[in-house]
Write a structure and sequence with these properties.
The chain contains 20 helices and no strands. The chain is mostly helical and 481 residues long.
Length: 481
């Protein structure tokens, strides 16, 4: 029936429903609804940002000073005021626009109130955090817009689309990393993304790295390693061994060291700045990132499943020994190995080093993302590259510096997300729906969707589907109603 109405009533047509019937059916007072949402947002925002800021403080790896604690406390209060202000403003502008216009339309039921509330809220947050927030919501909004277009049959699924986005983005980012292009800073790698690149790919590929002195040739290095190994063997042989397991472990260690030294003593091209051989450079990077990825994945699984493990320790085996736990490790290991291997191969072919090599290597290495095709990661890298490119364009005088562009991007993206959360929540990322449900105390699910079905978007059915999929329930957590 909604489809029939949608053909008769245009999407821009207003609907004559009151804010009591749509925005806050649980109370007759707009003021009570706004204050109730605001109070709950304050408590939940404080909980969220306390966790974030305290974890950030702990990750510094040192005993916090009095100034650190003071700065963290003020940061928690400021971010809490920002997020709770968004919730309060959203409810306030929903009712206010209804009273001013006398009705709701497809823009005023969510998008415009969300945009206006974001305009005021983002000004409360620290300027240093606005870019990070804009990148995050733009990431989610991009995926949401794509899902909305796909649900309307405007676009279709693209196989390996995430891999293509990631590969192209990493090709551009690798070029910036190798060529040393900076973003309005004396430090070429002040941007966090470049620090991540430096950690993953190693410092030897960045611009300005001082070349290592010419190393001894392969024969000399191999002789030196053999001499050291022989000395160690003689020391071990003078000791009396009674433990068979220890002897076996020692023999395996000697074989490993001999194999490692053999790889290290292979040839290194004169254009390469890394130590030891190109083969060792590639293998070492692959193993290091594979181990890191596996450790992160296992640690994350243990933390997320800690309550289950405590109740039933036998489930730990099933949680740890899963094929999916290798996905992140394989992605990081293959990416590092392919990236380094391609660079060394290109230097051998062309006889010189070039930032263009990094672009090609990043493009090819990005195909390793097929082992971990996460849309959140690919879209984040895409938006990060767009931000860095825009800053470079401003610095070079190619594009103008638009004041407030970051804030506008944040507000527009937030409007898209709130619009989808109300009218077509099935197109919203489930994790973001859970966030909105949590921060609003369930109010986002309690807002009446029946009056909105007239636009033919199957809003009520979409809400029921999301509630089932995310295991969220339309029960209001009252503070003040």
């Amino acid at each position: 029936m909604s489809q029939t109405f949608s053909k008769i009533i245009p999407a821009t047509a207003p609907i004559g429903v009151s804010c009591i019937d749509y925005v806050h059916p649980w109370t007759q007072s707009c003021l009570n609804a706004t204050c109730g949402l605001y109070l709950y947002c304050i408590f939940d925002s404080f909980r969220v940002y306390s966790t974030v800021y305290l974890l950030t403080l702990l990750m510094k790896g040192r005993v916090p000073t009095k100034e650190d604690i003071k700065k963290t406390f003020y940061g928690i209060l400021q971010s809490t005021a920002f997020l709770s202000g968004t919730g309060m403003g959203y409810s306030l502008f929903l009712c206010l626009l209804r009273k001013v216009l006398g009705n709701f339309n497809i823009l005023t039921v969510s998008a415009i109130p969300a945009f206006l509330s974001s305009v005021f809220a983002i000004l409360i947050e620290r300027p240093s955090r606005r870019t990070l927030l804009a990148l995050y919501v733009s990431n989610v909004a991009t995926e949401t817009l794509w899902n909305m277009a796909r649900s309307r049959d405007m676009v279709g699924d693209i196989k390996y689309g995430n891999v293509a986005i990631f590969s192209i983005s990493m090709a551009i980012l690798s070029f910036y990393f190798k060529s040393g292009l900076h973003t309005n800073s004396d430090d070429c790698y002040s941007d966090p993304m470049f620090r991540v690149m430096r950690f993953v790919c190693g410092p030897y590929e960045q611009k300005g790295y001082t070349s290592i002195p010419d190393q001894p040739n392969s024969f000399h290095r191999e002789t030196e390693y053999n001499r050291m190994s022989s000395s160690e063997n003689s020391n071990w042989q003078t000791r009396k061994r009674k433990n068979v397991v220890l002897n076996l472990a020692n023999q395996m260690l000697k074989i490993y060291n001999k194999f490692l030294n053999k790889i290290k003593s292979c040839d290194r091209h004169h254009a390469c700045q890394h130590p030891f051989s190109c083969l060792y450079y590639t293998v070492e990077g692959t193993g290091r990132m594979f181990s890191l990825g596996l450790g992160l994945q296992v640690a994350l699984k243990l933390v997320l499943n800690l309550p289950t493990i405590v109740k039933s320790p036998g489930t730990m085996k099933n949680i740890l020994f899963r094929k999916q736990n290798l996905n992140l490790a394989m992605f990081l290991g293959f990416y590092n190995g392919i990236f380094r291997g391609c660079l060394c191969l290109l230097r051998r072919i062309r006889g010189t080093d070039s930032s263009l090599h990094a672009m090609l290597a990043g493009l090819i290495a990005g195909t390793a993302f097929v082992k971990y095709p996460d849309s959140t990661v690919s879209l984040y890298v895409l938006w990060k590259v767009a931000q860095i490119t825009y800053n470079l364009g401003i610095e070079k005088g190619i594009v103008p510096n638009v004041p407030g562009f970051t804030e506008f991007l944040y507000c527009f993206s937030t409007a898209v997300l709130f619009h989808a959360a109300i009218l077509e929540p099935t197109n919203l990322r489930p994790s973001y729906w859970k966030f909105l449900h949590s921060i609003s105390g369930g109010r986002i699910a309690c807002m009446a969707r029946d009056p909105l079905d007239i636009w033919g978007l199957n809003t009520s059915d979409s809400l029921n589907t999301v509630l089932t999929q995310t295991k969220t329930i339309p029960i209001l957590k009252n503070i003040l109603v």
